[in-house]
Amino acid sequence: MRDVMKMEKLIADNQIQLEDIPQIDLYMDQVIQLFENTFGSTTRNEEEKVLTKTMINNYAKGKLFFPIKNKKYSKEHLILIAFIYQLKGALSINDIKSLLNDVNMRTAEGKMDLDHFYELYLDLAKLNADAFRNDLEKQAGKSAELNEGQPPQLEKVLLAVSLVHMSNLYRKAAERIVDEVKETGDGK
């Protein structure tokens, strides 16, 4: 159970808050620095990059967010990149594009309060982090209970397999939602 508490770094509620986003447009290097400062502590190792120029360029080419102006990224771009960052661990780039298409269009057309939508996401993310902490402790306890009398390493393997299973269930549920979004088209 002590090892679970070591995972607190992973669970940390690292999110870019609206007040952390400058009110002025940023150049790509500034965007990367903002993301590194916010999410850098959650990377698995020092070599892992949170965001790179290549990633941002690929997101732009793939039309995962509306076009930038004068090589600068607006607050809305940063919010969309934050969504992409969160989604890319579980969904394909095509799924992310489909999921964010309506958000992109509405934002670009000025028909959506993206700040408010992002605040809703941040509220859910906090609830998710709290629920995950509780569930992780329960899962660790259950793994220890079921592994009683076996080598301790097997308890960790059992816990890891269980967590991956839960992750796969959540990913599959998200993919079904993406498919539903695709079916409804422009969200009307």
Topology:
Layout: H1 2-6, H2 8-11, H3 28-39, H4 53-61, H5 75-87, H6 93-108, H7 114-146, H8 152-184
Verbal overview:
The protein is mostly helical. Helix content is about 65%, strand content about 0%.
Residue fraction in strands: under 5%
Cα-to-Cα separation, first versus last residue: 48 Å
What kind of sheet is the major sheet?
none
In sequence order, what are the helices and strands, one letter per element? HHHHHHHH
Query: Number of DSSP helices?
Result: 8
Would you tell me the overall average pLDDT? 91
Flag low-confidence runs: none
SS content category: mainly alpha
Report helical residue fraction.
Answer: 55-70%
- β-strand number: 0
Radius of gyration over all CA atoms, rounded: 19 Å
Overall body shape: globular
Short description:
The protein has eight helices and no strands. The protein has 188 residues and is an all-alpha fold.
Task: Throw out a few tags for this protein.
single chain; 188 residues; mainly alpha
